[in-house]
Design brief:
The chain has about 575 residues and is mostly beta strands. It is built from 4 helices and 34 strands. Strands 7-14-15-16-17-26-23-22-19-20 form a 10-stranded antiparallel beta sheet. A 6-stranded antiparallel beta sheet has the order 13-12-18-25-24-21, with no helix packed on it. The C terminus is likely disordered.
Amino acid sequence: ANDYAQRLHKGQTATQESFATVVSALISPKVDERPNFAFCELANVSICAETHALAEGKTIALVIYNPLAQPRSGLARIPVPIDTLSVAESGGLVVSHAAVFDTLSSDLQLSVTAQPHTLVFEYTDIPPLGFKTYFIKPAEKPAANRLTATQVALPAQEDISITVGTTSISFCAETGLLKSFSNGQSTDIVQTIEYYKSSPGTEDDEQASGAYIFRPIEQQSSLYATSPQLSVIHADFYAEVRQVFENSVTQVFRLYSTLPGAVEIEWTVGHINVSDGVGKEVISKFQTPLNNAGVFSTDSNGLEMVQRVRNVRPTWEYKIVEETSGNYYPINSAIYLQDKDSKQRLTIVTDRAQGGGSIKDGELEIMIHRRTTKDDSRGVDEPINELGEDGKGLISRGRFLFTIGHGDQISSDPILNQRNLESILANPSTLLYSASIPQSQSNFQLSYSPLAGPLPPHVFIQTLQSLPKKGVLLRLQHKYGVGESPKFSSAVHLDLGSLFKNIHLKTVEEYTLNANQRRVDSKRMSWNYEGSNGEPLKTGYNELNGYKKALLGYKQSYQVELQPLEIRTFIVTFSKAPLSSC
């Protein structure tokens, strides 16, 4: 595990250095004036050394990069050392949707270097594939945006609710657990942290639960965290409810104005106690009254959604042996269930690959932490029992986004559709910090985008990579599957000639997916398949108009069609000025 972490860290550090160099060069054309940047890698645990300068009265520049091909608005959460701050755009416009509050106490216990406060502010219209700069500085007088977490004693006199815009969630006055979700229509939903006991194997079957095998002793999960301490933070653009349980479990439920109709849950599961010799596998369970009749869907490698049916396999008769683990499936990005009559849908988007399923109608559960005492004999030759820095076990932290609504309406909503929610977690905005950008520097380019305009919401620029002596590798992906969305599952057309600004296409050639062969030279094999009566499998092929030849002039149109979930790969070359055909 340490070897994996070291390799990942080396790759991350090299990427950050290259990225910071590019952003610095785009901001300042003069080498001696280019700013230095740093990243807050541990901001998710309230550690950010780069903001210490605020306590010394200095101003911090925050560059927010948007990796999507569409403009982005969102919420920045930054650990800070002081609680009187103001945020402004590069033009001097003060950001009104900004607030400061105390950091969660459990985070402060994780590290002595954790910042005592958290700044949240709303950023808007970050240009596609570009960046925008904000300035954070100490306020001259106590800020009106200082928020205080209100403690709620349980049992309370009434349910605890938070609302931002049209979205609200409520928590039970007795238990302090999530009780309902509303975004125009209220739906009962209970969310709990539960666990399964890991099987060490039996006399009849020695298979233990471990790194590759999930096998619980009992098919029914038990509550892992109960009786939370509750506190509430509320502003007009942002609200959160904090649950602090025993067993080092915390959850923070967040609503914010740039994500109307959805809820963010940041969960933390601390050291799992296995001193009793029993492994434990912790889940987050969502229970609703929706009747999905055993049917739910999970993604396949982050792409198409695959329908699953409880205790059923599509190609053979399934014998139920392990009722729980037999209905667990890999989740790379999303899982949902839908009521068979009302079409109300519960969608949960994850920030990492996990396992989960719908073990009972109306329920979804996702595995979030594990610690076992036995090896599963599948090659690792050790149990899942890493001790961590303090020798007590690992701490797991992650995020979900969830929403409930009519399936067709959700899938057609530009914000609430599953693919947009996935992009928030899978392609987050990147924050770069610098104390060397003066707010009044007029010759700095503090906002930038290489695109001539935003691309359609269907399209994701998967790769934009320079290839020495060959050009630029460009991969375009259609983000939606066939029939996935009444609004976004249609084919989309792009003109590559008008994709970028200030540079013009010179040549375009389409390649196979891995970019090692021209598509025109690719010879696809024909296969017979069952039920085809010997006929070869027919595959569609949409050619790029004119991909065999160079552009004759800047005004020539290079139209590309992307079908649902299609990925197309091109190598393109550019010229700085329009070409002439004369």
